[in-house]
Write a structure and sequence with these properties.
Layout lengths: L2 H6 L9 E3 L2 H12 L17 E5 L4 E6 L2 E2 L7 E2 H8 L11
Antiparallel strand pairs: 1-2, 2-3, 3-4, 3-5
Length: 98
């Protein structure tokens, strides 16, 4: 995703800045998607692995990127707090210890 676009895009619910999801976060989410344990905010079970995504500054919500386009629909977002609790993990922002 273009850095200029990343600098201006924000969460439509909280208006927080977004950053790229780390490879470990995507790996964890994709494992849960493969096991059919991941759903989006509208309750739909996810069945396709995430290639990329954006995460809110507070790391509570993720917006998937499909074919290079970020989906900023709240209903298609994934609530990370649910994923953290289920996986027992803290998802660190790239470049940040955690």
């Amino acid at each position: 995703m273009n850095q200029k676009l990343l600098d201006i895009v924000c969460c439509p619910l909280t208006h927080q800045p977004l950053h790229k999801a780390s490879a470990p976060l995507l790996g964890t989410l994709n494992q849960r998607i493969e096991q059919r344990e991941m759903h989006n905010a509208s309750g739909t079970i996810l069945d396709a692995p995430l290639q990329a995504a954006l995460v809110t500054e507070d790391e509570r919500r993720i917006y998937p990127i499909y074919d290079g386009l970020v989906s900023l629909l709240a209903s298609e977002s994934i609530v990370l707090e649910d994923a953290r609790c289920a996986a027992g993990l803290r998802f660190a922002r790239p470049g940040r210890a955690g």
